[in-house]
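Q: Two folds, back to back.
A: First:
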Amino acid sequence: MKATKQIGWVVAATMAVLASRGAAQQTSQNADAKAQAPAAKREIVVSLKDRKLALVENGQVLKIYSVAVGKPSTPSPEGTFTIERRVENPTYHHNGKTVPPGPANPVGTRWMGLSIKGYGIHGTNEPNSIGKAASHGCIRMAKADLEALYPQVAVGETVELVGHRDDETARLFGNGAAPAPTPQPQLAKTAPAPTVPAATTPTVTSSSANSAMTATASAILTGAL
């Protein structure tokens, strides 16, 4: 009887050891499979013509955002760059002026500096500029869009700024065709009404000259906004 119990314990112990080894082997195989699987390749593509930014993973568009790009006098650079720096709630410095994080900060709540000095992807304190050619060369984003994109992008990932239409930009952003003009209503022709002479009174036109100062400040992080 004792011998039978001992045999049972040995068998149970042996099965437990085998099960443990099997589990360890399966875990090792899963780890090897993950290590061998290619990492997802993400990149940012900006169409300067469309004023759009696409987050692309393995060639497929994950999200498209509207952005502001460089104005004609300070255009955004074209080419392929990488993200070199990521900063949350940056402080803006320029010519002795310091703007702490907050609504007045010209670069918003996030900064992603590019491998071309002085340029990056950032927020703005001028939300109405989004969708326009209005920056000093950087890519501006709306606050909510920027904060959604920021955690999805890592240092070292590619940023392509494209200034012309090609097959790739058409695939990512559409054909870029301008919307058709809205047809104007046609007025029915009527016979002209007889004119009646009327007394005329002099009109006085006043004009005032308004002067505007254009700030060309740039962030210490960026050199361009």
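A: Second:
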Amino acid sequence: MITRADVTVTIPTRGDVDLTPILDTLDGFADVIVWDNSQRGEDRAAFGRYAAAWEAPTDLIYSQDDDVLCLDIDGLLGIWEPGKVAVSYQEPWDIPWGGKGTVFDRRLANDVFARYAAHWLIDFEFYKYFADGIFSLCTDAIVADFGCEDFPVAFAPGRLSTSGGWYDHYRPEIKRRAELLGLGEWQRVVLA
């Protein structure tokens, strides 16, 4: 079983959220890398989680968004298996978004995004809308509900789920592209 010391944390942010409640839960990890898009040369939006993974001292990554608190990170670490992605996800929707907590080997992300880049452009639209969905759909995933607390900013204008075209354009297009690349298999775990 992996421990926090085996894992680096990556958190993408716009730089406009107080990360203290999240950072207070991250003791014992090998490193914590906050990818602040407002301080980097290029805004990579949610893809900042993967860009930060390339800077990590470990191959294993725990990541989450800047607007949510995962309630059982250690439980999520406990279900991770080599070659798979562990995702804390509560919704019964068709894409297990990693923003509420995910554990992965950064080499999986490299493989998925290299396959994607062979067919489509890697640009800001990819960084913001496609990267997380493509990654979760094109890898084998273990999905369980470890609970989360969404911060109010999660529903602010300009966030992914409040962006125009999110539900009627981007989500269906993410699924279409992922199917062309090859879908991974999901294993949903029901916790006691």
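Q: And?
A: Residues 116 and 181 are 7 Å apart (CA to CA).
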